[in-house]
Queue: 4 jobs
Job 1
Amino acid sequence: MLLLDTHALLWLDNGDPLSAAAREAIRQAVPAGGVLVSPVSAWEIGLLVGKGRLGLDLEPVAWFRRFLRVAGIRLTPFTVEVAAGCSLLPEPFHGDPADQCWSRPRASATCRW
């Protein structure tokens, strides 16, 4: 499985250049339904739009739902355990709370990012 961070899903949707290794990892993971995105990315995208740092052709929820319709891309569950676990990651960990939250499903599954 492959967990995309917010920047990767934006770049993928925009057709921005990704490394050859990233493109190959996504290509291999998609047929098996193994490309995951976190609902935390929807929150991050909403924040970026709200601050005027990102422009989308749709409002953030509609944009995110359209992205999820791509074959082979699935939403990770954001359970109470994941939410609480975000604060329990081992130190030192990246200080960005969003990175902590979308990284939590990766810590509890066999994912790469």
Job 2
Amino acid sequence: MLKDQLETPRKSFMLAITIPPADEIRGIVKLSRQWEAIREWEVGWAVHSAEWGKGYATEAAWQLMDWGFKHLNIHRIVAYCHADNAASVRVMQKLGIPMAAGGIVLKTNRPA
């Protein structure tokens, strides 16, 4: 993972999710380039089960997606989850990513 952070241009960004005041790592959020030609990236997250339902995945993904659209010239961000993973489906809905067939979701960097 560390060698990935040294690539130029970077193909992925993985950040820790920490919660004050302890600032212990409670999860991760990642943005990965999927298809360079169309400027498509994937966002993903994993949060410790003790922190589920507290909005940490949504907040972390939102911040990273916003940063990506502003600084990486991203056209589209996708996310994937199993259709039965209700928690991740809710996160995607909160991020404004519409659900498509098979659990594939998309968000584009263009006005609605």
Job 3
Amino acid sequence: MGRLRSPDAPISLQLLTSGRAVKGERYKFVVRISNSSDAPVPLTPCPYYRVQYLPQVEGGYLNCAAAPDAIPAGGHVDFAMEMGVLQGDPELGGTYDLLWQLAARGPRAGR
């Protein structure tokens, strides 16, 4: 479980994970976005995210349709996530970090 607080916004991110990732399967986890301010933080436009579990990188927009319009003051919103875990090289072992980030905007059209 990791936590990150943004210096530019009253939000913090927390990854709620359990179990181990298994090669060739989808790894499921939850991203909790908390608002420490006394005002709601809108989820419009819907934020784009990027998640990385080496060497796999995925991105997309949060499921804002299933979330409230804003993160309530002093509250949080949880987003269920999943990511593919590549089979990879059988000789490649070890431990990898799960990295997750919000992006200012999604990829440009045509890319």
Job 4
Amino acid sequence: MIDFFIFYAILLNISIVKIIILFMKIKKYNPAFTLVELLVVIAIISIIAVLGMVSLSNARMKSRDAKRVTDVKQVQVALEMFYNTNNRYPTTDEWNAGTIVSTSSSGEVVYF
């Protein structure tokens, strides 16, 4: 369409700048975003943020579960080491003391 205006301007000997200004007025060129475009972008960003928060929450839960499993395995290993050294499991008093200590001939060993 602008080619037509340029051709017409050459025929009528009108400057190209005037034709471009006229074309801009006719088309009402406006480079701003519309409200709908902004709302769509905000909605997309919100959806991505929610998905990121959900996956981060799942990762934290899996991390806590892995730590719990590791802690239980450490207790299991400590009890097995105590049993191998003393041929018995610790008593309730030893367990409630907070540390399971074996006093053998080679010295004092802390298991847990």
